[in-house]
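Homework help board

Subject: predicted structure for assignment chain

Our instructor gave us this sequence and asked us to write out the predicted structure in token form, then describe one feature. I got the tokens but I'm not sure how to describe them. Can anyone check?
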Amino acid sequence: MRLVGDQGRAKMSRRAALLTAGGFVGTSLAGCLAGSSGPVSVLSAGSLAHTFENYVGPAFKDKTGIEVQGEYYGANAVMRMVEDQTKHPDVIVSADATLLRDRLYGEFTDWDIEFATNSLGIGYNEETGFGRGLDRGEPWYKLALETDNGDISIGDPDLDPLGYRAVQAFKLAENEHNLDRFQDKMMDLVYEEPEEPQMMAGVETGSRAGAIVYHNMAVDHDMPFFEFPQAYNFAQPELADHYATVEFTTDEEEYTVEGRPILYNATVNQEADNPDAGRELVQFLLDESALLVDAGLTVGDNLPRPEGDVPAEISI
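My token output:
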């Protein structure tokens, strides 16, 4: 898997570096909760599907004997399912920490913990003209405008943060590179994929040239990844004010979200069927940061970071 920066340089992924160093090394669960039994259900942002299915779930079961049963959708859809009570997960995970707090605090939870970050860019097929141009170091925004309708996909901005971050990134790129109506032109070109976990399939087959995705999604599929510049990759907390200069309003719910750094957070549903196992899984996410980095996420020195009335059983 190759990660390409804005100068076209190939960089070894964190995943490769960790595998070279010996991979995941387990640590003990701080505050492991006695009495947990049965599977733990997770309703998570779709960008973490492979992270839970291939990394967290198996390692958690090896460590605790508890099976993780996950379902994955756009984070907006996740919040809606919890609010509508069409899904009753033990653990809820969002790709936008503020989104979870705005939608679920007061009725379904009163706490969460931020546990990882990510960066935005383009996962691409290097056998396409678009991909070959990226490998040559040509400006991604010029290449993107030369693609055919549907060659590049984004998440559905009404369903998940990955989608509306793509829309916001187009506007920030327009401002950063002084591009005339770049956001409008890109929105006329891209295909909006409603099933976030399916975004990579078209790129892998070559039916699409690329997709606006998170770094870990490219890692999951061993796919080349062009990381957007810091001005619009949403990976830099110190640029929060800059990211906030753009916003997006969803159609159905009319929820307006300002641009903000990518932060994954997790909580346990107050209506959980297995709250003990839910808290144990959240604790596992906090304890096993190396596993998350192996999956392509970033865990900075300022994480984990709690918000609200975190249960005493969870150790930060």
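Reply (TA_rk): Your tokens look well-formed. For the description, you could write something like this. The domain at 12-117+263-308 is CATH 3.40.190.10 (D-Maltodextrin-Binding Protein; domain 2). That's the kind of observation they're looking for.
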